[in-house]
Specification:
The chain is mainly alpha-helical. The chain is built from four helices and no strands. The longest helix has 22 residues.
Length: 111
């Protein structure tokens, strides 16, 4: 039971962080151009990586579909916020992060 919680807790923390930053009222301040793309890639890398490690027995295709859906839906959710916008570039960065996260999780499971 403890090991299951230890696997799921990082995923819960990542989801809370993604929802908190992705659906906040205003965008995060940027120190350099396109910094938000780095945030998108890293955030969805962490999402996919921790999702796979948290639920190793669930069907991979379903988890990948969930990852892709969340990556796209969070951008669409931003369209509902007055000071936020969705963009195809952000969606692409999200999907890149998902792909890298899955690759990283597969490599980590080999250890």
């Amino acid at each position: 039971m403890v090991t299951r919680f230890a696997r799921v807790l990082p995923f819960i923390v990542v989801v809370a962080g993604l929802l908190g930053s992705g659906l906040r009222a205003g965008p995060v301040a940027q120190m350099f151009q396109q910094q938000d793309k780095v945030h998108h890639v890293l955030g969805f890398f962490a999402f996919a990586f921790t999702l796979r490690l948290a639920f190793p027995r669930l069907h991979v295709a379903g988890l990948i579909a969930l990852s892709v859906s969340v990556a796209l839906l969070i951008e669409l959710g931003q369209m509902l916020l007055p000071d936020r916008t969705a963009s195809l570039a952000d969606m692409a960065a999200n999907l890149l992060g998902v792909g890298l996260g899955w690759a990283g999780a597969n490599a980590a499971q080999g250890w």
